[in-house]
Amino acid sequence: xxxxxxxxxxxxxxxxxxxxxxxxxxxxxxxxxxxxxxxxxxxxxxxxxxxxxxxxxxxxxxxxxxxxxxxxxxxxxxxxxxxxxxxxxxxxxxxxxxxxxxxxxxxxxxxxxxxxxxxxxxxxxxxxxxxxxxxxxxxxxxxxxxxxxxxxxxxxxxxxxxxxxxxxxxxxxxxxxxxxxxxxxxxxxxxxxxxxxxxxxxxxxxxxxxxxxxxxxxxxxxxxxxxxxxxxxxxxxxxxxxxxxxxxxxxxxxxxxxxxxxxxxxxxxxxxxxxxxxxxxxxxxxxxxxxxxxxxxxxxxxxxxxxxxxxxxxxxxxxxxxxxx
Amino acid sequence: xxxxxxxxxxxxxxxxxxxxxxxxxxxxxxxxxxxxxxxxxxxxxxxxxxxxxxxxxxxxxxxxxxxxxxxxxxxxxxxxxxxxxxxxxxxxxxxxxxxxxxxxxxxxxxxxxxxxxxxxxxxxxxxxxxxxxxxxxxxxxxxxxxxxxxxxxxxxxxxxxxxxxxxxxxxxxxxxxxxxxxxxxxxxxxxxxxxxxxxxxxxxxxxxxxxxxxxxxxxxxxxxxxxxxxxxxxxxxxxxxxxxxxxxxxxxxxxxxxxxxxxxxxxxxxxxxxxxxxxxxxxxxxxxxxxxxxxxxxxxxxxxxxxxxxxxxxxxxxxxxxxxxxxxxxxxxxxxxxxx
Lengths: 325, 340
Hints:
The structure holds 2 protein chains of 2 kinds.
Chain A: E1 2-5, H1 6-20, E2 24-28, H2 44-48, E3 53-55, H3 60-72, E4 76-83, H4 91-98, H5 101-104, E5 114-119, H6 134-138, E6 144-146, H7 151-163, E7 168-173, E8 180-183, E9 196-199, E10 204-208, H8 211-227, E11 231-235, E12 238-240, H9 244-254, E13 257-264, H10 269-280, E14 290-294, H11 303-307, H12 313-324
Parallel strand pairs in A: 2-3, 2-4, 4-5, 5-7, 6-7, 10-11, 10-13, 13-14
Antiparallel strand pairs in A: 1-8, 6-12, 9-11
Chain B: H1 4-13, H2 18-43, H3 58-67, E1 73-77, H4 81-86, H5 91-98, E2 122-126, H6 132-146, E3 152-157, H7 164-175, E4 180-186, E5 217-220, H8 224-239, E6 245-250, H9 270-276, H10 279-289, H11 294-317
Parallel strand pairs in B: 1-2, 1-3, 3-4, 4-6, 5-6
Helix pairs in contact in B: 1-8, 2-3, 2-10, 2-11, 3-8, 5-11, 6-7
């Protein structure tokens, strides 16, 4: 085990796959010579050269379209969209073209490609550089969607995404880039479609994703120590495919479900999980399902405002106490 | 510098080869007959949804169809029947897809606007304007990366030159010298609106080429020989690492934009004028002048009609797609499961 930051683990994941498979190439804006605006791809150009690690113009449609064309003709491209908000600029490519090509062509077209992007708030970037938009992708049939919360997971899930035969969007939470964590030595490949139980409790099951996983864990600690409420914490990790079996089993054990989402309220991923739980383990529930989300507003910029918009540890603790006490 | 006049003279003078010329003629006739049949089937309510015909634009598809290598890639728009057939795709598969039958190229899952035949290098028909230009550039990147000397050819209409993806793709392809040929079929109308009323330059593609360091290429899209020579020239250049080309081929569609459009916005006499310049008429007269026998051309026409009849009968006889296709092929495992 080595201790890496989340950003170093991103580079390690890409490097591992570039090393392994010549069909893999990586491109995006400022990713090669500059090593990425978040320094997530430092050293890749030096190691793999300009044929495989490429700087692109500010042309999101061209970047994602090119990834699609390269993937359908035998390569396994990794494309970076600098901020996930910019996906809106190339959403035609993602939602209309990439997601549907296999289905419409009756399986003739394969698109083994990865789109990585810096997602989510906490960095005071304001409403156009801070959105958590993984739920946009989740709503489109034909896209796989992961949002890793730790350095080990980001490396392993990037590797799994590259090796997957379908298009995968990897949402990296930009406020986690500096976070450190243990990453297994040597080749590390995770599995899409698997949630992780990070903590087992008796009273309540908190289901969270990406940055919210860490806040949920901290809240669970406080709830246990200060209020005697014992919580399970599940890291969803993969929205599509969705590991409903793990989630349902953990909800059944505690009889309570709380989702903690960075998405604005309407149609956040937690709504789908709440619906599945209500359908399939209603009789195991001891109380109403609770969703803790960002309110349905664009994200404000100032630190006091942003901190009071995205679910905080204090808010998670308070809302769970109010419902469960 | 425009290459128009020079190109046309060259087309007549150069020996394209008798076999090649016959093949170009045969393809044009097949595309014309099949497209007319698609319209008949629509009138019989056997073709549902929408369809966009290429009647009058056959020279471009046929010339490229003959000029391309079997492993080259075609990317087309929703007006893609002709380009798909020009790569040798099954007529039954095309008509069947338009009719929503299980024999369709996509088993009825794509429809008229999404014809795809990967085995024949038809990498899809794209129904969102401009989307396939970046995709074609990506395929070209793949060819360049693997050193295969394959070329991607991307066909689109004049309306596409005003959308962002067009400009992004041209810059992207030019800066990396990708082996991709962008072919603008300028048929004078974006959909219902005349292209010159909504575009700042006279030649919507050719006049934009210089912005990407590319040569301005304007050719007669109704002259199959000129199209063929242009295709060969720029594809050969692209194969050798010379980078992309943007070709504007001036043409005219004999029908409306889609099946819902009778084309009433066209000024009186315009269609008639262009019918005089019908690419099939031009080519047939030229072949006769070059000494091809009337009987040879007649045989090609008879055989093309026989193929269309055969394909129509086969498509009509084909059952509708099985309902289990609805949840097939979302993913590479063949299924549609999004959860465990």
